[in-house]
Each structure stands twice: as C-alpha cells, then as structure tokens.
UniProtKB/TrEMBL annotation:
Belongs to the methyltransferase superfamily. L-isoaspartyl/D-aspartyl protein methyltransferase family. Keywords: Cytoplasm, Methyltransferase, S-adenosyl-L-methionine, Transferase. The lineage of its organism: Bacteria, Bacillati, Actinomycetota, Actinomycetes, Streptosporangiales. Its EC number is 2.1.1.77. InterPro entries: Methyltran_FxLD, PCMT, SAM-dependent_MTases_sf. It comes from Planobispora takensis. PANTHER family: PROTEIN-L-ISOASPARTATE O-METHYLTRANSFERASE, PROTEIN-L-ISOASPARTATE(D-ASPARTATE) O-METHYLTRANSFERASE. This is Protein-L-isoaspartate O-methyltransferase. Pfam families: PCMT (PF01135). It is an enzyme of class 2 (transferase). Its main location: cytoplasm. It is found in: Cytoplasm. GO terms for cellular component: cytoplasm. One of its GO terms (biological process) is methylation.
Length: 396
C-alpha cells in the first residue's frame, strides 16, 4: 500500500523549488490528487508532471491534469484570498477547482465550467468523492463565462486561450484579477492581468504550455500529424501552406553552428518567444521517437524543437556538446535561406539582452486592430491582433 502522505509531501517538495507561497503549498498538501486521477496508480498521480486523461479520435490529447508546478505558479499569480468568488474555465479532472476551494475557504465560492459534458461530469464526481461538493461544475462554453454567479473576484483559465473573452472582463468585480495561458503566436505564457483604465495590463508573466480551448472560440492554431508511427507533429500559429514537411525532413540536411550558446530555459523562455512574435513563418515540432529532429527540449514522452518553415524548406534549432552550443539544422532547397533569416533573429535577440518573460509587459486593449493601420504603441513594441482584443508586448 502506497504511503499517500509521503507521496504528496515528495511532490510538494519538488513544487516548492519554484518558491511558491505557503498557502498554495498547504493546498497541495491537503487536497488528494490521486482521487482526481483514479485511473492511474497513486505513485503516478503524485509525480510532478502533467497526466493526459482524454484523447480525441485522432489521438491528440484533449484533457489532462496539469503539472503541479505550473498549477501552483498560476494559483500564486491569481492571488486567491479567503472568501472570494472564483470562476475556473476548463474543469479538467476537478483537481484545480479543489485547490481553489481550499484557498477561498468556506466563505468563498468556486464555479468551474467545461465545454465537454463528460469532462464536466467526471470533474463533479471527483470533487464529491474528494470532499468538495460545494464546488459548482457546469457544462458550458467557458468563453461565455458563467453570468448567473457573477461577479467574480478572480477568473482563471486552465486551458490555452487564443483571445481574452469579453465575458470574463465584463463579469469581473472591481479590483479583480484574471490569469490565463495566453497564446502569443503559437507559444503560451500564463499572464496575470488587472484592469488599468480602459485596458488590461499584465502583473506577471510565466512560461507555460496547455491544451488549447475547443469549440467556436478556439484560435486559428493548426496541429498536423506528419507521421503516426513516430507521433511526429508540427504546430503552426495559423493554417498556411508549408508543403510536404515530412518529405523535406527525410531528405538531405545540414547542421550549422551559430557560434553561441545558451541554457535551455533561456532559449525556451526567450529566443522562442522572440521568434514567435517577430517571425510569421515560425513553427514548432514534436516527436515521440525516430530521431528525425534535433532536440531543443523534452517533455515526458516527446522531444521538441522550434524553427522556421516555408513551402520549400525548414530549419530548426538544436544544441551540441555539453556547453549548450546552439545549432541550426536546415532541410530542403529553402533551408539555407530560412537559416540565414533565423540567424538574424538570433543576433537581434542577443543584442537586445536576451529578453524573456521577465520584464515582459502585455497590454490587452479592447477591440481588434484598427482598420486604418497600426495603433500607437511604445517604440520597439510588438502588436498581436485578436478577434476581441489586440495585444501590445513590450519589454522593460
């Protein structure tokens, strides 16, 4: 019989390496994660990693229990206080709603909504079994919020969102805070935002990765499975013609040294974000096995890299040696040209001081981009247009 307390304490000890608050750590120690993951052994449930719980007909994950570390970081971003009313968009297993219920206490209220009726049903069952029957779980499109229990002091999305929903902002109480895994042209950052005049402004930005919102409010991102045997996939910020990527990958290639090095965290948090918001041809690729790709980073079961793709070629980032020397791997007749463009981005990122999420400010302004051109923004800022808002990114 597994020692559940010891397993939970071990998980929380790992999460505490990211300097989470005592309140969040206590919630993780108190709420039994294994009751929200009855299909896996407790030893698996208390690993500090995401656990996929549902997949679609094509095999792509559609629901999961997120990694406890990122859950804890987002809860700290949310800054939940006892007695508050919280809306959660994306019910998952119900575990995060239970953590929220612990944090708001008996005088608070938690409402969790999910577009998938089976996910909502199971989350409700898990919450009752774990001793949190007071959490309201509803099957609804989270992009519309949940007006009948509004206003909310806090709103958190536990699913990747492409745009900020007007309903979330309208259903927020004065002084409220919103935390969402926000898409920034194919990469995500967990952004804590508060109202500042007529716009919403970030208070903290943290790297993250979540399954995307589904339904009518989903974004234009495209995930394409290139090879089912190796689970090779390409991710694009929006659908476009990139030719036969698999054929290009299986053809001749060359490796180019960039003459620079960087730690993995610096590359993922900095260079990848720089590429995403500045390079319209950016992409990411992941594979479970086969070794076709250089590996820039790993998540459980997958090797991941990032780069630039066009109809006639592809180039992606890798590392070489023990000192993190950065390389570019070029494929196809256009690979050399794309590599030259990627190296320009690398030099500009390096010259700018290698900015990442630290110091990043995101302003969300109501309405899409003006039809008459670029809005007035600070020098050097990047603008990303959405359906209901436009984002202005700047670094201090």
């Amino acid at each position: 019989m597994a020692d559940l307390s010891a397993l939970r304490e071990s998980m929380v000890a790992q999460v505490r390496e990211r300097r989470i608050s005592d309140a969040t750590a206590h919630a993780l120690l108190t709420v039994p994660r294994h009751l929200f993951l009855p299909e896996v052994p407790p030893e698996t449930a208390y690993r500090n990693e995401a656990i996929v719980t549902r997949r679609d007909a094509g095999g792509l994950p559609t629901s999961s229990s997120s990694q406890p570390t990122i859950m804890a970081m987002m809860l700290d971003q949310l800054d939940v206080r006892p007695g508050q009313r919280v809306l959660e968009v994306g019910a998952g297993t119900g575990y995060n709603a239970a953590l929220l219920a612990h944090l708001v206490g008996p005088r608070g209220e938690v409402v969790s909504v999910d577009i998938d009726p089976e996910v909502a049903r199971q989350a409700g069952d898990h919450l009752k079994a774990a001793g949190f029957p007071e959490v309201t779980v509803a099957c609804a499109d989270g992009f519309e919020g949940f007006a009948e229990r509004a206003p909310y002091d806090r709103v958190i999305a536990t699913v990747g969102v492409w745009d900020l929903a007007p309903a979330w902002l309208d259903q927020m109480a004065p002084g409220g805070r919103l935390v969402v895994p926000l898409d920034l042209r194919g990469v995500q950052r967990s952004v804590a935002m508060e109202r500042e005049g007529e716009r919403w402004t970030s208070r903290s930005v943290v790297a993250c990765g979540f399954m995307r919102m589904r339904g009518p409010s989903a974004g234009p991102e495209l995930v394409r499975i290139l090879d089912r045997d190796s689970e090779l996939m390409i991710f694009l910020p929006e659908a476009r013609d990139v030719g036969d990527v698999l054929a290009v990958l299986d053809g001749p290639s060359m490796e180019i040294s960039t003459g620079t090095s960087a730690e993995e965290a610096q590359l993922l948090d900095g260079l990848v974000l720089w590429l995403a918001v500045r390079e319209p041809r950016c992409c990411s690729l992941a594979e479970a096995r086969s070794g076709r790709l250089p590996c820039l980073s790993e998540i459980p079961g997958f090797a991941i890299t990032f780069g630039v793709v066009d109809r006639d070629g592809l180039c992606v980032l890798g590392t070489s040696g023990t000192d993190g020397r950065l390389t570019v791997h070029a494929y196809g007749p256009g690979g050399g040209r794309l590599t030259a463009d990627l190296l320009v981005h690398l030099r500009e990122w390096d010259a700018a001081g290698r900015p990442g999420s630290d110091g990043l400010r995101i302003d969300a302004r109501r309405g899409p981009l003006p039809a008459d051109g670029r809005p007035v923004v600070p020098a050097g800022a990047q603008v990303i247009g959405k359906r209901h808002t436009h984002l202005v990114l700047s670094w201090t």
